[in-house]
C-alpha cells in the first residue's frame, strides 16, 4: 500500500466531497480523505500502484491547487 500526501487549497466540505468523488470514480480502490484543519488543507490518498501525477492533474482540472508533499 502506498500513501501520498498533497497540499491543496480546498476550503469547504462540499469541495472535498466533489474532489473525492472525482478521484474515486477513476480509482475506486483508493482510500481518499482531506484534513481541512491542517494549514496545508491536506489531501491523503492510499492505494496500490498509486498514480500521484494523475491525481494532481484531476485536482488541478477541478480548479484547485494540488502539490505532492515529500
Q: Biggest sheet: strands, sense, closure? A: 4 strands, antiparallel
Tally of separate helices: 2
Given as residue ranges, the uncertain stretches (5+ residues, pLDDT < 50) are: none
Q: How do the strands line up in the largest sheet?
A: 2-3-1-4
Alpha-beta classification? alpha+beta
The CATH topology assignment is Alpha-Beta Plaits
Radius of gyration: 11 Å
Number of domains: 1
Helix fraction, binned, reads: 25-40%
Mean pLDDT: 97
CATH class label: Alpha Beta
The helix/strand series, from N terminus to C terminus, equals: EHEEHE
CATH architectural label: 2-Layer Sandwich
Distance between the termini: 16 Å
Strand content: 25-35%
Shape: globular
Tally of DSSP β-strands: 4
Protein name: Methyltransferase type 11
Summarize the structure.
It comes from Flavobacterium endoglycinae. The chain is α+β, with helices and mostly antiparallel strands and 70 residues long.
Question: Main attributes?
Answer:
70 residues; alpha+beta; Alpha-Beta Plaits; four-stranded antiparallel beta sheet; 4 strands; 31% strand; Methyltransferase type 11
Amino acid at each position: 500500500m502506498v500513501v501520498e500526501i498533497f497540499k491543496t487549497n480546498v476550503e469547504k466540505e462540499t469541495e472535498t466531497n466533489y474532489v473525492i468523488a472525482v478521484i474515486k470514480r477513476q480509482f475506486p480502490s483508493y482510500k481518499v480523505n482531506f484534513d481541512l484543519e491542517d494549514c496545508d488543507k491536506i489531501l491523503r490518498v492510499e492505494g496500490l500502484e498509486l498514480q500521484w501525477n494523475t491525481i494532481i492533474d484531476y485536482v488541478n482540472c477541478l480548479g484547485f491547487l494540488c502539490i505532492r508533499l515529500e
